[in-house]
Design goal:
By secondary structure, this protein is of the alpha/beta class. Helix content is 51%, strand content 16%. The mean pLDDT is 89. Belongs to the short-chain dehydrogenases/reductases (SDR) family.
Length: 264
């Protein structure tokens, strides 16, 4: 049985990328970290490598999987932090995406985050805790070439702000909104696609460590939404005020992105 001083933490999609970075930082902070990932073998291997207490197979589209991960975390200490990191990044215009891709984006990015948030709220003790949802800069304004992905991430931001306002005392819900990050997800996207070109137009691609650090910094804070980098968040929010202009500006930004990709 865990002692009263032991705390646990859940990281979904934690076998690699941003999720692994978050898990490593939370282990370093002294939390008993449970990693969930669709690839159960990779989750277990990562847990062993970084000192997490468990790595489990988890399909975030299934609400029951979140309850099982929460139960596992509860066996190792009081649950005080939950990171909804699992996500998919299918790029392409709405007309280009298949029905399967659209459903997967909604079910993993939005519903997966929704089920994880509900499970965390139910599992937190009297002292409360923090839910940190990994959204995206694409969720703060119009991003052509990422229309469906952006829609799911905008929904994650809205979910986070709304649930934070309705959550009981001691519970905080946050959304971190990073620009492009150097992960396998970004590498798998079409470099000729408009979405990828816009990502590369915004300056240096973020490292996993930068985003993981930003996500972990929200634990215990009152900040609800954090864009990384902050200045880029201001630009994207500004485009949301006049979305019609983005149709014309996108061509200029895409050209900048193509040049940046050629220089890498």
């Amino acid at each position: 049985m865990p002692t009263a001083l032991q705390t646990s933490c859940v990281v979904t999609g934690g076998a690699r990328g941003i999720g692994r970075g978050i898990a490593e930082l939370m282990v370093a902070r002294g939390h008993h970290v449970v990693i969930g990932d669709l690839d159960g073998w990779a989750a277990a291997a990562t847990a062993a490598e970084i000192g997490a207490v468990a790595g489990l197979a988890q399909d975030v589209r299934d609400p029951a999987s979140h309850r099982l991960v929460a139960e596992e975390a509860g066996r190792h200490g009081a649950l005080t932090a939950w990171f909804n990191n699992a996500g998919v990044g299918d790029d392409g215009t709405l007309a280009e995406l298949s029905e399967e891709q659209v459903r997967r984006l909604v079910e993993v990015n939005l519903l997966g985050t929704t089920w994880g948030t509900r499970a965390a709220l139910a599992a937190f003790g009297p002292a409360g805790g923090d839910v940190v949802n990994i959204a995206s800069l694409a969720g703060l304004g119009p991003v052509p070439g990422y229309s469906m992905y952006a829609a799911t991430k905008a929904a994650v931001v809205s979910l986070s702000t709304s649930v934070n306002a309705e959550a009981p005392r001691g519970v905080r819900v946050h959304a971190v909104c990073p620009d492009g990050v150097d992960t396998a997800m970004l590498a798998a996207q079409d470099p000729a696609g408009l979405g990828s070109q816009l990502v590369w137009s915004g300056g240096p691609i973020l490292s996993v460590d930068e985003v993981a650090t930003a996500a972990v910094s929200l634990v215990g804070s009152r900040r609800v939404v954090r864009a990384v980098p902050g200045w880029r968040g201001g630009v994207v929010r500004g485009s949301a005020v006049a979305p019609g202009l983005m149709q014309h500006a996108a061509r200029v930004f895409a050209a900048q992105g193509r040049r940046a990709m050629r220089r890498r």
